[in-house]
Amino acid sequence: MNRRSFLKRAGALPLLAGAALPAWSERKKLFRQKRDEYALSQLPDWKGFNLLNKFWPHGHSAFDERDFEIMAEWGFHFARVPLSYWCWSKETDWYSVDERVLKEIDHAVELGRQYKIHINLNFHRAPGYCINRDDSQPVTTNLFEDEAPLEACAFHWKLFAERYKDYSNREVSFNLINEAPSVEAEKYDRVARRLITAIRSVDPKRLIFVDGKDVGTQPLMTITDIPGIVQSGRGYQPFLLTHLRATWAASWSAIMEYPAEKVTWPLELDGKLYDKDFLREASVNPWKPWTAAGGKVHIGEMGCHNHTPHATVLAWLDDLLDVFGEQQWGWSLWNLSGTFGVMDSGRKDVKYEDYKGHKLDRHMLEVLKRHL
User: Fold this and answer.
1) Cα(53)–Cα(22) distance, rounded to whole angstroms?
2) Distance between terminal CA atoms of the chain?
């Protein structure tokens, strides 16, 4: 292949007779654009885990290289990183920035590059909104109603866009807001578009994930005109099974009171059968209008709290991943280590394996690996 053909195939403009080659920095930019365009049109079915080091500002920690080493060793290649902006900023001063904390996030992104694990940065808590309340620092403004928190959120996403603009879409993507509330599509659309615009004013081809509306369960159909968007779904159905004894969901009394020994899979509850067909109906069918319009879906969170019987969890998880596999959707378990996780989950009915300083649920890991 001659030089002219090579440059054309790499995405450069056709060379005119006697024209000078583009500067190396411009050629690198063209290569990167071509690579990123491919990443958008051929989204991998990335699979992995949520890493919660910066999920909660009270006692947040630096990211541990051993987590990346473990995920790579097992064959996983995706890490969703839920972030609370309180870790590097303040509820009382939205525009303050702690560079030390941002460098710890930089380190996670670099570890992802090193271990070939895609990093999906998510604002779990943004100015004016979080799905999880914290009464110690009540949020007094509403991201979906008020201009000030939206402008502050756009500021932080633009800050991240500047920080990671030299990473390809195969290495880094952004997930705007975790689990938007049940608001009108027009209000969510306004927020999503403002944040997408802020990001792409700096990094025009950045791959962006938008959590579905109604807490990640339904597609936001107003954004079909925006290229390079993936919508993020959830795998938490049926809720009684996945959140049994979860204190943050205690407003539904059955979560706290239903006998654990009766939580089986398939599950019969109040005359209804919950089985693999139900999972298709609940977790796939709502997304059909979006996929019919050419949209892509990734399951950003899924999993089951540690009070559900282990045998039930494994059977349910196997069916759920079969259903996602039928759609060729990627997914990330909530979480790697913790009460929903494959390590250090604190289940009372599991014989754990000692593994690199952790208590490993080997049976759950094998279910996950079967669906890679």
Assistant:
1) 43
2) 37
pTM, rounded to two decimals: 0.89
Angle at which helix 310-327 crosses helix 362-370, to 10 degrees, equals 20
301 pLDDT band (50/70/90 cuts)?
Answer: very high
Distances (CA, A) of 304 to 37, 67, 164, 189: 35, 20, 33, 30
Cis link prior to 238 (omega < 30° from 0)?
A: yes
Query: CA 207, CA 173: separation in Å to the nearest integer?
Result: 5
Which distant-in-sequence residues (6+ apart) come within 8 Å of 73 by Cβ? Answer: none
**Helix (H), strand (E), coil (C) string for the chain:** CCHHHHHHHCCCCCCCCCCCCCCHHHHHHHHHHHHHHHHHHCCCCCEEEECCCCCCCCCCCCCCHHHHHHHHHHCCCEEEEEEEHHHCCECCECCCCCHHHHHHHHHHHHHHHHHCCEEEEEEEEECCEECCCCCCCCCCCCCCCCHHHHHHHHHHHHHHHHHHCCCCCCCEEEECCCCCCCCCHHHHHHHHHHHHHHHHCCCCCCCEEEECHHHHCECCHHHCCCCCEEEEEEECCCHHHHCCCCHHHCCCHHHHHCCHHHCCCCEEECCEEECHHHHHHHHCHHHHHHHHCCCEEEEEEECCCCCCCHHHHHHHHHHHHHHHHHHCCEEEECCCECCCCCECCCCCCCCCEEECCEEECHHHHHHHHHCC
Handedness of CA 280, 286, 292, 296 (dihedral sign): negative
The structure tokens 């090579």 sit at 6
What residue type is 343 in one-letter code? Answer: M
Residue 259 pLDDT class (50, 70, 90 cuts): very high
Strand 353-355 and strand 358-360: the pairing is antiparallel
| Cα 60 to Cα 125: distance, rounded to the nearest angstrom | 14
Report how far residue 283's alpha carbon sits from residue 319's, in angstroms, rounded to the nearest whole number. Answer: 12
